[in-house]
Amino acid sequence: MEQRIEDGLSPYRVFSRAEWAELRQDTPMTLAPEEVTRVRSLHDRLDMQEVEEIYLPLSRLLSLYVAATQRLFRAQQGFLGTEDSKLPYIIGVAGSVAVGKSTTARVLQALLARWPNVPKVDLLTTDGFLYPNAVLEREGLMEKKGFPESYDLPALLRFLTDIKAGRRPVRAPIYSHLIYDVMPNQWIEIDRPDILIVEGLNVLQAGRPPKDGKAIPYVSDFFDFSIYLDADEQVLQSWYVDRFLTLRGTAFRDPKSYFHRYSKLSDQEAVETATSIWSRINLVNLHDNILPTRQRADLILTKGESHLVEQVALRRL
């Protein structure tokens, strides 16, 4: 079953789709077809077979990891003689624009919430921690939106610190894709979930360690498990362009949309505009900030042109 990545020193065990699907074993399917359709994002291909062959084995693996973490927590309690509250298990989901992070995060949330012990599973996207457009414009960062420097990293780290400390509830800003901005004075509250899924472009990004050695510099330090969604650059570009063309005829038509001006573009103009945005912004971010974090993930899901996962790589313990 195990394959090699480049050489025998790889930290990952690599599985074909068929090999990974066998690891589902007796994990039950708890989602109905209409629920699978509901969690699917624009242009993603997610059907019952994909859930059964990819996400049910992953749900089984995560159930084992969560149980093992809980046993370790109880062992530490016994060692320290404390009665600390159980802490949320945090799962990070990373990858490029248009790779399908939102779909993966939502289907995992739906599956994990159906475990027999019915855990409370919350989902957070890091978009809410982007600086408001007014700040980005003032700092000349609108063309770098989605890059690490466009996020309020201290606020995100404070949020995750509060989550791991068991504080309740913890508030996070809300981002609107319609107006393409953080919504002022609007928040979601996360109230001590059993599992928290954190989805975002740069959640595995490694920053520079602080000189005094005191602060925690990385968002991923708070993760118990991390997933990276991967696909070839040309495939990602085609998905991005296709999504842009679809949005041109749907969400962009709303006069409130930040991108309303694009709704009037011809097919050729829309393709040229989307390709330019991809090459100028998203591809640069992928090369400089996102792709270099792939090897930091515990699990890598590699998609083919059909949007289906073709290979799974699991980090060795």
List its salient traits.
317 residues; alpha/beta; 7-stranded mixed beta sheet; two-stranded antiparallel sheet; 9 strands
Describe the 3D structure:
By secondary structure, the protein is of the alpha/beta class. 37% of the residues lie in helices and 18% in strands. It has helices spanning 17-22, 33-39, 48-80, 101-112, 133-138, 153-164, 233-248, 267-290; strands spanning 12-16, 89-95, 121-125, 170-176, 181-190, 195-199, 225-230, 299-303, 309-315. Strand 8 (299-303) and strand 9 form a beta hairpin. It is globular, with a radius of gyration of 20 Å. Residues 1-7 have low confidence and may be disordered.
Outline the fold blueprint.
Elements (H helix, E strand, L loop, with lengths): L11 E5 H6 L10 H7 L8 H33 L8 E7 L5 H12 L8 E5 L7 H6 L14 H12 L5 E7 L4 E10 L4 E5 L25 E6 L2 H16 L18 H24 L8 E5 L5 E7 L2
Parallel strand pairs: 2-6, 2-7, 3-6, 7-8
Antiparallel strand pairs: 1-9, 4-5, 8-9
Helix pairs in contact: 3-4, 7-8
